[in-house]
Design goal:
Rhamnulokinase family protein, 2 domains, 23 strands, Nucleotidyltransferase, domain 5, FGGY_Carb_Kinase, 8-stranded mixed β-sheet, kinase, EC 2.7.1.-, alpha+beta, 18 helices, nucleotide-binding, single chain
């Protein structure tokens, strides 16, 4: 391991908040300091839902300015959620706003696409699960005139890298989520673009995680006070960065990247594209070092977040503690029910209505509603783990829960109980760690293949064993 101290800056954009963090690598360890936090969310305008991308850019610059106060920085990299994009014109200028994946414009687009390319053929070529907001269906929702006027399409992290000074490229961990990417060839699926009547000329050059894109632009350096830093594409999909920081050993493990979404998956050497993986709507997304993330999107803590927004509560830890006092064996529902996808202050009522429809007891009170959500998420996680074992031929004995959900002891214990598997919780900031370590590796501060060893040396994990009892959780 390199003993020399290096600093790197990670920008992590989530659907509800963003962070800019400084990572310091030395002697095989990584220390992370979050310098700047800021809110994020959809902006409704006349029935449409947008991201405030210029506001995000302002916050990124603010975070970089704070990083400059800590001394020289080797590199900067951005990760975010998947599928959403910006169109740039021939002068490189932003064309209008950046739509939110929950915007209603994609309704029925997926079914229309199947009229051009059958579902089975589309899955065989891309290996990506069918979600109504995939980039392919968003692009098909664009007015033809806008596509004709556009020169390129950039996913959100690629747009910010371009504004930071890098060329217009597409990093593959995010590109692989678009349903326009061939996971076998690790290239754009040009026949799919043709079949869906989408212009291939819009798609930029693909690059691997850890690609050095070039120095910060002179303008950004002046604005932030950073000089000498390189723009590095990490694994720009936040889940890919989180998986890169899973502190696992061996092959008998799965991960749950737990946040607004819950991503339940395996890291495999090759895509798994079979009739059974299609039947279960599993997805094959590109990971670090040529790996594939075989996973399933499960509705995550989004339901809790929307309930808390409706109740006006921000004390999540207290609410989870209250939910832990609710007797087990209560109602459960399917968290992937599409009725829970849209935003809305009526989320608690939707949950109660679905329980009533299923003939189950209706959760009464905030703690009971949250316990219903967590029980349901745990059961669904266990179901997906069993499917992944069957489809991949692997045996999973340990489940690594990373991200914000790793702090929720009740949820982690419920996953252990529902799945009958050991759960290791942590790191909380897996996405930031993965982003920073891929950058550090690209800059020569971490040897190739040592990312997870650095994570294990840098964080403490908590173990949860099946069957709830007071001694079920212990620090490792």
């Amino acid at each position: 391991m390199c003993a020399e101290l290096t600093r790197h800056v990670a920008v992590d954009l989530g659907a509800s908040s963003g962070r800019v963090a400084l990572g310091t690598v030395q002697d095989g360890r990584l220390e992370v300091e979050i310098l700047h936090r800021f809110p994020n969310g959809g902006v409704p305008v006349q029935g449409r839902l947008y991201w405030d991308v210029l506001g995000l850019w302002r916050e990124v610059l603010r975070g970089l300015s704070l990083a400059a106060q800590h001394g020289p920085v080797s590199s900067v990299g951005v990760n975010s959620w998947a599928v959403d994009y910006a169109l740039l014109d021939r002068d490189g200028e932003l064309m209008g706003g950046v739509r939110h994946y929950r915007d209603p414009r994609t309704e029925s687009q997926m079914e229309r696409a199947f009229g051009r390319l059958p579902r089975e053929q589309l899955y065989q070529r891309t290996g990506i699960q069918f979600l109504p907001f995939n980039t392919a269906y968003q692009l098909r929702s664009e007015p033809q005139q806008r596509l004709e006027q556009a020169a390129t399409v950039l996913l959100l992290p690629d747009l910010l890298h371009h504004w930071l000074g890098g060329p217009p490229v597409a990093e593959i961990s995010n590109a692989s989520t678009t349903q326009l990417y061939d996971p076998q060839a690790r290239a754009w699926a040009l026949d799919v673009l043709e079949g869906l009547e989408l212009p291939a000329r819009l798609l930029p050059r693909l690059v691997e995680p850890g690609t050095v894109l070039g120095p910060l632009s002179a303008e950004v350096a002046r604005e932030t006070g950073l000089s000498g830093a390189q723009v590095v594409a990490p694994a720009t999909h936040d889940t890919a960065s989180a998986v890169a920081a899973v502190p696992a050993q061996g092959e008998d493990w799965a991960y749950v990247s737990s946040g607004t979404w819950s991503l339940v998956g395996l890291e495999v050497p090759e895509p798994v594209i079979t009739p059974e993986s299609l039947h279960h709507n599993l997805t094959n997304e590109a990971g670090v070092a040529g790996t594939t993330r075989l996973l399933k999107n499960v509705m995550g803590l989004w339901m809790v977040q929307e309930c808390c927004r409706a109740w006006g509560r921000t004390d999540f830890a207290e609410l989870y503690a209250e939910a832990g006092q609710v007797a087990p064996g209560g109602p459960q529902l399917d968290p992937d029910d599409p009725r829970f996808l849209p935003a809305g202050l009526d989320m608690p009522e939707r949950i109660q209505a679905v329980c009533r429809e299923r003939g189950q007891p209706v959760p009464d009170g905030q703690a009971a509603v949250v316990r219903c959500i967590l029980d349901s998420l745990a059961r669904r996680t266990a179901e997906v783990l069993s499917v992944l074992e069957r489809v991949s031929g692997r045996t999973v004995s340990t489940v690594h829960v990373v991200g914000g959900g790793s702090q929720i002891g009740l949820l982690n214990q419920l996953i252990a109980d529902a799945s009958g598997r050991r759960v290791l919780a942590g790191p909380v900031e897996a996405t930031l760690l993965g982003n920073l370590l891929v950058q550090a590796q690209a800059m020569g501060a971490v040897p190739t293949g040592h990312l997870r060893a650095v994570v294990r040396a840098s964080v403490e994990l908590t173990e949860y064993l099946p069957h709830s009892h007071p001694q079920a959780a212990s620090a490792l």
